[in-house]
Every structure is written in structure tokens, then in C-alpha cells.
Amino acid sequence: MEVVELDGGQAWIQQWQWPAPDHPAAYAIENGLWGAKVPIEELTEVVETVTEVPSAL
After folding, report:
1. Which residues of 7-42 are buried (b: 16+ CB within 10 A; e: fewer)?
2. Statement: the pTM of the whole predicted model exceeds 0.85
3. Nearest one of 33, 10, 8, 11 to 20, comparing CA atoms
4. Is residue 55 part of a domain?
5. Residue 10 covered by a domain
6. Which domain of life is it from (predicted)?
7. Which residues pair with residue 30 across a beta bridge?
8. By residue range, what is the domain housing residue 25?
């Protein structure tokens, strides 16, 4: 699961999984990717991963 944006006390999350979870907050985005907006305090076991992306220039 990936947190893609923080907005106040909410987090926009996304994950590759099909089908999307059977939950009112979850919605299908495309090709097995689903997302949801959840309260930040519901996120547990948070791990930050930094990945360097090489420049194509």
C-alpha cells in the first residue's frame, strides 16, 4: 500500500490488487489499482521508502 498524498487529517492511499476491497471508501482506478481516502490515525506500521529515480536526460 502506498500513501500518495496527505490532506489535513486524511491520507490518499493506493494499492495494486484485484478486485478492490469491498469497502465503501475503496474505489477502482484502473488495471487493478484501487484507492481510498482514510483517516491518518488508521494507518499503522508506516514505513518510508525513498527510491532514487535516474534522470532520462
Report:
1. eeeebebeeeeeebeeeeebeeeeeeebbbebeeee
2. no
3. 33
4. no
5. yes
6. Bacteria
7. 33
8. 2-42
